[in-house]
């Protein structure tokens, strides 16, 4: 039986002959041939602890299993509650930050990039619209109550239908206008080069938070001074419309100048119509109640002679 030194010598001699025949070939030892590619051979100690090879294989198995689970997991359908639950996954600090961003618009400060950060929500827009509709109906009734106290001739009865009108108007505006805007921007997407349009959820979120400034405006409309009410309305409209224009400008500026100016003008005009409609409908003054005028006796001029009374004929008894 050959010794270990003789075996080593024969291996070295075979490798030398092979290298002489093919000088560009690489040599591998027998231990390298026994080691699988991509693994590190580490000796196992006498204590039975696992080596690095077992740890690498275990981690790769876990990663493969996790990836398989993620592939098997299906997205919930839009008709399920879990689908809409992610849209309300937002904390109070994020909502307050987005409200602050809508109240303080600045040129070059994009509301979607700086506040939404690819995580739009429906929690803030939903409750902002609900609060605005409720405040509109309540302050509209309070305005009539205060007017009746100043002028008793004004007849007032509770107008509960204003809650329904306010809710339908605000929610339709906060959903239908963003839907139309989003559809138009997607239609004009072929003209743009640098930046695509926002998603529908981002557009709804921008419009929802832009309505928050109308809530304190409606409360301030309780002051019975007409010119002051219109001043508050113009200030609130300016802040809200400026936030929309600064947010939409990075998207529409790649389009033609005519289309960009026309689109922004329509956005501001619709916002102004919403504010004016709230002012004229919910804060209109009631006419005085119908009072029957008392009969007045008019004196005739003295130069007009009164005709003598006709004689009354008496029938014989």
UniProtKB/TrEMBL annotation:
Yip1 domain segment(s): 103-275
One cellular-component annotation, GO: Golgi medial cisterna
Location within or outside the cell: Golgi apparatus membrane; Golgi apparatus, cis-Golgi network membrane; Golgi apparatus, trans-Golgi network membrane; Late endosome membrane
Membrane spanning residue stretches: 122-146, 166-187, 199-223, 229-251, 258-282
Region annotated Disordered, chain positions: 45-69
Keywords: Membrane, Transmembrane, Transmembrane helix
GO terms for biological process, alphabetical: vesicle-mediated transport
Topological type in the membrane: Multi-pass membrane protein
InterPro entries: Yip1_dom, Yip5/YIPF1/YIPF2
One Pfam family this sequence matches: Yip1
GO molecular function, one term: small GTPase binding
Top-level taxon of the source organism: Eukaryota
Primary site of residence: Golgi
Keyword Nucleotide-binding found: no
Family: Belongs to the YIP1 family.
Name of this protein: Protein YIPF
